[in-house]
């Protein structure tokens, strides 16, 4: 009996050691080798439009995850706001994100394999809940009588509560969005996405000084802020040092 107990104790210790080694291995791999999009500190948000319309997101700081299921006959805006498409037929995660006014980490269908591993590994630790997206939608009818869903105004207030990153909220960054493209409404649309990450947009402006791409400007001290890095990474911007105060950020939008 004593021998059996000793063997079981030894096996338990080996199992714990294996789990610790695997956890350490994943951490080292992520810090040293991973070159995916997710940085391990902000929300990991995945949009799936393959055979459903789902936004799944978890916050690594709180270990809370949410899956928002939207109907396939949800009418969303087309490319550059031209026309309207059914979300379940368009298979365009980027258009879903634009309609919701959110930044996202990856599309489920095209996720980088490194991010896919991280999604599986860290997602298992999250406490998930599922929400019906029609809570923030209204029914409508097309000219041909087909029934569709449209997002209503209540979503904007809910998005920040549901999808802001705790780590970004804690930084209390203030962002000014500057549109240099001449495209009407661009600054406001990007401002909504930024607000929904947990940052605060203090102003939207236009400028005649044209730039290409986009630039995130901040003080050198703020360059390492989680929110600053999120904007650079998610929007594909370059970073530029500017004479700004601590926690102040400027986002310049140029021609893409």
Describe, in plain words, how this protein is organized in 3D.
The chain has three domains: 1-33; 44-154, Nucleotidyltransferase, domain 5, CATH 3.30.420.590; 164-253, 2-Layer Sandwich (Alpha-Beta Plaits), CATH 3.30.70.2390. Helices cover 35% and strands 28% of the residues. It contains eight helices and 14 strands. The protein has a five-stranded mixed beta sheet with strand order 6-1-2-3-7, with helices on both faces. A five-stranded mixed beta sheet has the order 11-10-14-12-13, with helices on one face. The chain has a two-stranded antiparallel sheet with strand order 4-5. It starts with a helix and ends with a strand.
Keywords, separated by commas or semicolons:
256 residues; Alpha-Beta Plaits; transmembrane; membrane; Nucleotidyltransferase, domain 5; five-stranded mixed beta sheet; LytR/CpsA/Psr_C; transmembrane helix; globular; alpha/beta; 14 strands
């Amino acid at each position: 009996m004593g021998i059996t107990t000793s063997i079981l104790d030894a096996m338990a210790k080996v199992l714990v050691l294996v789990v610790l080694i695997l956890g350490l291995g994943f951490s080292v791999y992520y810090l040293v080798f991973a070159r995916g999009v997710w940085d391990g500190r902000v929300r990991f948000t995945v949009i799936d439009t393959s055979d459903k319309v789902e936004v799944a997101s978890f916050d690594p700081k709180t270990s809370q995850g949410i899956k928002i299921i939207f109907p396939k006959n949800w009418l969303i805006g087309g490319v550059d706001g031209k026309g309207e498409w059914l979300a379940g037929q368009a298979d365009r995660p980027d258009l879903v994100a634009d309609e919701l006014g959110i930044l996202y980490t990856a599309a489920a269908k095209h996720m980088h394999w490194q991010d896919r591993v991280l999604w599986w590994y860290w997602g298992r630790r999250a406490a998930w809940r599922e929400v019906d997206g029609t809570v923030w939608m209204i029914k409508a009818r097309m000219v041909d009588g087909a029934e569709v869903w449209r997002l209503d105004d209540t979503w904007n207030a809910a998005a920040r509560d549901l999808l802001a990153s705790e780590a970004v909220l804690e930084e209390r960054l203030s962002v000014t969005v500057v549109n240099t493209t001449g495209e009407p409404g661009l600054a406001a649309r990007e401002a909504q996405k930024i607000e929904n990450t947990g940052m605060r947009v203090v102003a939207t402006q236009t400028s005649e000084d044209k730039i290409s791409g986009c630039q995130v400007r901040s003080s050198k001290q703020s360059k390492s802020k989680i929110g600053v890095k999120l904007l650079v990474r998610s929007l594909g911007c370059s970073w530029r040092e500017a004479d700004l105060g601590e926690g102040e950020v400027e986002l310049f939008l140029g021609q893409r």
